[in-house]
Structure formats: structure tokens, C-alpha cells
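Chapter summary example.
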Amino acid sequence: MKTRLLTAAAFIFAIATGSCAENSSSLVIIQNQPPKKGCEASNSVSDTFLSHGILDLGASRFGITPQYFGWFVLENNLRSTVEDNGIELNKVEITKAKIQFHPAQAGEDLEYTQYGDYSFVTVAPGETRTIQVNLIPPNVAERLNVPEGKFIEAYVKLQVVGERGGTSIESNTIRFPVTLCNGCLIKNIGYCDSATFPDPLAEGHSCNQSQDEPLDCCQDPQAQGADVTYRCPAVKSTDDGGDTGSNNVEGI
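The structure predicted for these 252 residues follows.
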């Protein structure tokens, strides 16, 4: 009798949670949804999404660390078990993003590389959550070689891994293209005390200045010999040697 009870309990649990062999339709990457401000992106699917990225490797000349981030909306398509069992068994805890980078002639002996980025986000059944993923981290970006003024197309394959009740679950795999360049986004407008400032001033990406958005920088005449001699976004210097409002960001 005891054996039958255990078998029945195991059968009920299997029905509630599904079989151990998960498929990618249970956890789905919907889109890359860039943040409007800072590094926080909406958890809801919106009409604003990014289908192609740009990484300016020349950002290092301005004291900015080249790297590329994505903000991906995940959807948990599993059915809630609260009504049937009184507890939620289909909550997915995201643990890792598996990344494969294909840089297509962007560096010597660098035709293919793979690595992971780690995050902790919980996605309830029927809900969506956004995770931030460093698709091209600094240690990969620094190995890439793109001549100034040239453009090279690369792409990143991304799959998200999570756990549900001790069982591993994997998302679909997406292919996200990224254009690599050297000097296509960041512009030196001249010395901060004498440059003609454009209107409007290009202020770059609010979270990572080396990607996606144009950025105007100026060279600070008072910072000669310093590690960082540029102000990004550009801020006009004053002649009295006071606070010039430097807000250079070196990435994350």
C-alpha cells in the first residue's frame, strides 16, 4: 500500500510539473528591449525593441570600456499549479545566459567563442521579466580588431537557462546581430573650452556609452597627462579652473 501511495504521489507531481524533458516553448526569449533611462528596462513586452546592435570598439580612446549589453524579455509559458496544488511548482528561477559569439573576421584566430553571464531573476507562470545580459564583455571586446572607419558584422547566439523545482529548463536560442566598428558612434568635437557644441548634443546610451547611440566628447585641456582626457558627453570647460562638470563614464 505504501508503494502505491508513493507511486501515485509521484504521478501527480509529474502531471503538475510536466516531464523532465523541457522544451524551449516553456521559457521563451521574446525580444531585446533597451532601457529608456539608466540600466532598467520594462518587464512588459512593448513596441520598442532592438533587432540589431552597434558596438564602437574605438570607445577605449575616450576612456570608455567597450562592451555590449542586451535587455531581454523572457516569458514563462508554463501553467500555474496554485489552483490544483495550493503551491506554485512552475516558477522558473533564471540562473545563467549561455552565449556564443561569432565575430566574422573581427580578430585574429577568433572565429568562435562561448562563455556565460550570470543573473538571478524569477519568472512566474504566465508572466514576463527582463534580464540584463553582457553579450560582449570587455575581455572579449578587447580581443577584437576593426580598422578605423570600417564595419564588420558579427552575431551572438543566446540561450537562457533556469531551474524549476530542481529541474533544469532552457529557453529558445536567438541570434542577435551586432555591427562592430571603430569610431562610428563616438565623436571628438574638439577642446572643451573652444569647441562648437552641436545642438542637440549627442549624449550616448544611458547605461553603456560604447553601444548603439551617438556620443559627442570633447578633450579637456586641463587634463593633459591624465588617464582620461575626454569628457563624455562633452561639457564646456570654464576659464577660472573651477568645476567643469566632468561626467565621463567608463561603462559598467
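To summarize the output: The two ends are 60 Å apart (CA to CA).
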